[in-house]
Amino acid sequence: MGLDEDALEYHRTDPPGKIEISTTKPTNTQRDLSLAYSPGVAAPCLEIDEDETDAYSYTAKGNLVGVVSNGSAVLGLGDIGAQASKPVMEGKGVLFKRFADIDVFDLELDDSDPHKLVEAIKMMEPTFGGINLEDIKAPECFTVEERLREEIDIPVFHDDQHGTAIISGAALLNAADIAGKSLDELEVVFSGAGASAIATARFYVSLGVRKENITMCDSTGIITADRAAAGEVNEYKQQFARDVPEGGLADAMEGADVFVGLSIGGIVSQEMVQSMAADPIVFAMANPDPEIGYEEAKAARDDTVIMATGRSDYPNQVNNVLGFPFIFRGALDVRATEINEDMKVACAEALAELARQDVPDAVVKAYGDEPIQYGPDYIIPKPVDPRVLFRVAPAIAQAAMESGAARTEIDLEAYEEELEARLGKSREMMRVVLNKAKSDPKTVALAEGENEKMIRAAYQIQEQGIALPVLIGDEDEIRGTAANLGLDFDPTVADPSVGDYEEYADRLHELRARKGITRSEAGELIERDSNYFGSVMVEQGDADALLTGLSHHYPSALRPPLQVVGTDEDVDYAAGVYMLTFKNRVIFVADATVNQDPNEEVLAEVTKQTGKLARRFNIEPRAALLSYSNFGSVDNEGTRKPRTAAQMLQDDPDVDFTVDGEMQADTAVVEDILEGTYGFSDLEEPANVLVFPNLESGNIGYKLLQRLGGADAIGPMLVGMDEPVHVLQRGDEVKDIVNLAGVAVVDAQQE
């Protein structure tokens, strides 16, 4: 099937459309229903009657946006009417929810009179925290937005105008930086004089472009002062009329620094690009076909052409989804009365700054694993970059507070943590650990320091203040790679081939002499194997923690730390733990990587160490030792091991958290089973530490939970070591390294 057929099938698959309403509170019992509706609902109604702002506390208003259109100017389709525009508006709702966790009601109003539209939207003000106007034709869209901004007290944003303006504005900031040009000296030419073009031109002036340097062309040609005086252009176009000779787009582009296309495809030739000033900036944003193709524009000049389009199949896509979800997120969270110019500028500047930073692996993978680095082919962030939420929404909230648009003040540092939680429980849990790490950073040795991911992780670890990273490897290669990646930092490097590390070799020989390693072999291992080097470094106290394993199989990466660092004084066995995060639950799973067939003593030790780990995430542990038996329902050697381990832990005065077992997995995690059939269990709430009877079941269990249960997995985290050591999984991303560095620092703080 072609794209159209696929899209039709996508939309009509039962249930039709793309959105639904779901409840956020329990509705399982009679009491639940009496709280949700009659008679309990009267209480919040009366509170809101006393103080209308309580609607933000007792209803969904504060997270609800109305996407409103009459379908008179649907992108690429034109005036198709209200009903036909509904799939687009539903899609807008999907983007709001996907990128910023904002709920949407789409409203298609069947009227072309702008004054009627204003009155209809005004009447719905009590419902919404904000209004997103969409696909309303010019010049009526100007009237609707201007009146609504004056007459209602919630944010109003016409995305067709301001979305393109803001995102292309961010691109302009970086394009000018790369081209070495000052905004106030740029000569800018616009092709198109509709709502989006006029709003974009206005916004460029807010960013620093001089209004007198903007030349705007409509379908007739350059908008001149003579045309304005003759009444040939409307009031909105008149503000960009220039006292210049009449001419066409080709005349306007001669000598220009910037071309901004918001018109129709194919109207710009290579000759027109060649006539522009040195190092031209070309934003050809007509969709689906740009004013000039990407390859054509690039081939037109020998010097650098910085090119952006509205298409996703070329670099630098000007995509409005980089703006509106996050703008509304910040505006809603401070209960803003409007989205003003300061907030729009803050959005563009935040996006521009983000594009200059290292790009997460997940984003690189989403775009074919091709390198993404600040430069002519990367001047604005990618839409799937999760960091956009954390950079733009706080910038919007701050600008709203500073400009007086906010009705409530928020703590911006705490706000970023709230935004993390919106993207998933795992981010919320890691924020707890990373904040602890930042409070007292420790030195973390990174084996395999020449690996690009390790270098990028070291940069982020250092930049965020999580730890003091030390990269182990060839110093020249590490510094060269960092420079090629455009990372602005001075890495700390331990180079075994040039430093005086004889004492490390002596120590390794001392530890392993009776295990078959000669002094000469110890020296070779220290010089050539960063796992042994890093292990001795930590054992000797020259680093507080070690991360390794990025390019090794787990057993081979674990072997050197076990041989050199060893387990804790009171612990005989290390274990691997995964933290699995669901929407409303966190579970620690052990052992999933180390002990193949543990006995009861090992199970008990693993449980104790996993409980300690849970507390580092501010989780009070409730441990269940799992089996296929419930409390003696099956009695054999296999079921006795977890049963005995549970009894050992219950009898241990040093264990100050709840432990029970043996029990089946559903018994451990389902409250009704625990309270009903097994009300005698020591667990009063479902377990959050699950200890499996062997490595095979643990590994199978965590992977099924992750893949079928939709959990995010963090780990494996190594517990029970004498010093903090964590072994990465082959293929881990930079964020995984950063997260485990945070865990390692908190481990070291406990030491």
From TrEMBL:
Do the record's keywords include Cytoplasm? no
EC number assigned by the record:
1.1.1.40
Metal-binding listed as a keyword: yes
Which Gene Ontology molecular-function terms are recorded?
Answer: acyltransferase activity; malate dehydrogenase (decarboxylating) (NADP+) activity; metal ion binding; NAD binding
Q: Domain (Malic enzyme NAD-binding): give its ranges.
A: 161-401
The kind of enzyme this is, by top-level EC class, is: oxidoreductase
Q: Which SUPFAM superfamilies match?
A: Aminoacid dehydrogenase-like, N-terminal domain, Isocitrate/Isopropylmalate dehydrogenase-like, NAD(P)-binding Rossmann-fold domains
Sorted keywords for this record are: Metal-binding, Multifunctional enzyme, Oxidoreductase
Task: Enumerate the InterPro entries for this protein.
Answer: Aminoacid_DH-like_N_sf, Malate_Decarboxylase, Malic_N_dom, Malic_N_dom_sf, Malic_NAD-bd, Malic_NAD-bd_bact_type, ME_PTA, NAD(P)-bd_dom_sf
Q: Which BP terms in the Gene Ontology apply to this protein?
A: malate metabolic process
Cofactor (UniProt): Mn(2+); Mg(2+)
Q: Which residues form the Malic enzyme N-terminal domain?
A: 16-149
Give the family per the record. In the C-terminal section; belongs to the phosphate acetyltransferase and butyryltransferase family.
PANTHER family, per this entry? NADP-DEPENDENT MALIC ENZYME
- Name this polypeptide is given: Bifunctional malic enzyme oxidoreductase/phosphotransacetylase
Source organism per entry reads: Natrinema pallidum DSM 3751
